[in-house]
User: Which sequence fits this backbone?
């Protein structure tokens, strides 16, 4: 990880990989799992989920205090992305059958380090941390979860675990789109005109705050009932997509330097026309066919189709004077370090729609399934936060 923040090896050398079992006499833990793909009825509570084991020297076990739900949890519950995720879980096809089950969903975690692998010196048991666990790993709707040290960061001091659990996945997704793919940062955003489509969800509310923290001019698109929230987060202009033809409303505004699209669908057919031509202006979408292609066509053909699609779209729009990009969630402890600094300085705050107890996980999924959330749906795994 950047700057040697996460992994520091003794004598500058990594110890040999080895299996390390927790010294505590724990073999099972409470967890919400699925045994097959489907709708909400596939969720099952068990007290017999296998306790996580440190397999690699850079891993830590975290006691989960709070987790949260994201749209990807709904999609994964239904089997979305299973082909690609199973390839990542078992790339050499060592195991047979449906190796992902029982599968624990949930990507966000805020909690306390319980145990560290032999190669972890940046964290120690008792540290309060947060993380976003990649979707190919067992999730956070459990009493404990294992994570790589370079996926973990110290929790912002100003937030409770409940508040902190609302940020990692959406924060890293927005960070990936805006900073790592879009090239935006604190030093080059001042005065830039940014358009955020789908500004009232988890990624959108984070993106609005990040862009304002970096001194950009932000135009946010959301429904009228979310406009007060989005304005409170700092958006300069708020457009109600229900109040008329959205394309025509946006065409009345000056052209943009950057567009973040959380909506997808037909939006990209016209949204790129809102960018300044031949100025380095960029459109980044988080709605891509990558996993769908692999589910439908298999790994090889799906990757081929995806490559053809992104290549042709990139070239098409480059010839028109704008950049077209896809972005994805990327786990990163170093990026969470930077986000934590912004949170502790008061520039970014969590936006929570509703908090549920650990026994209410099915109800939390139904809430998320209903759509139109204003921020995040959080699960308190430990009742008092």
Assistant:
């Amino acid at each position: 990880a950047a700057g040697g923040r996460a992994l520091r090896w003794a004598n500058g050398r990594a110890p040999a990989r080895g299996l390390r079992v927790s010294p505590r006499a724990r073999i099972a833990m409470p967890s919400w799992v699925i045994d097959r793909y489907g709708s909400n009825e596939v969720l099952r509570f068990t007290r017999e989920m296998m306790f996580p084991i440190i397999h690699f020297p850079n891993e830590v076990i975290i006691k989960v205090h709070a987790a949260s739900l994201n749209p990807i949890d709904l999609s994964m519950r239904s089997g979305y992305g299973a082909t690609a995720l199973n390839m990542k879980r078992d790339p050499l096809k060592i195991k047979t059958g449906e190796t992902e089950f029982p599968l624990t969903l949930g990507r966000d975690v805020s909690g306390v380090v319980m145990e560290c692998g032999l190669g972890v010196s940046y964290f120690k048991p008792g540290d309060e941390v947060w993380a976003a666990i990649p979707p190919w790993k067992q999730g956070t709707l459990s009493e404990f979860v294992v994570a790589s040290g370079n996926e973990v960061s110290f929790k912002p001091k100003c937030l409770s675990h409940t508040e902190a659990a609302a940020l990692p996945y959406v924060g890293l997704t927005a960070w990936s789109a805006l900073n790592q793919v879009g090239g935006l940062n604190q030093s080059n955003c001042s005065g830039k005109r940014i358009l955020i489509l789908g500004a009232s969800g988890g990624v959108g509310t984070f993106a609005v705050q990040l862009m304002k923290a970096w001194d950009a001019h932000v135009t946010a698109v959301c429904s009228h009932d979310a406009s007060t929230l989005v304005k409170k987060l700092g958006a300069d202009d708020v457009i109600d997509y229900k109040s008329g033809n959205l394309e025509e409303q946006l065409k009345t505004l000056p052209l943009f330097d950057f567009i973040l699209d959380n909506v997808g669908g037909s939006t990209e057919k016209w949204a790129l026309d809102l960018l300044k031509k031949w100025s380095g202006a960029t459109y980044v979408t988080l709605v891509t066919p990558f996993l769908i292609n692999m589910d439908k066509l298999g790994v090889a053909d799906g990757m081929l189709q995806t490559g053809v699609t992104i290549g042709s779209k990139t070239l098409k729009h480059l010839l028109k004077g704008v950049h077209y990009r896809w972005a994805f969630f990327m786990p990163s402890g170093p990026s969470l370090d930077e986000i934590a600094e912004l949170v502790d300085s008061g520039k970014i705050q969590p936006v929570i729609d509703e908090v549920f107890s650990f026994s209410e996980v099915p109800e939390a999924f139904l809430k998320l399934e209903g759509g139109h959330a204003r921020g995040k749906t959080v699960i308190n795994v430990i009742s008092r936060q």
Remarks:
- The two ends are 30 Å apart (CA to CA).
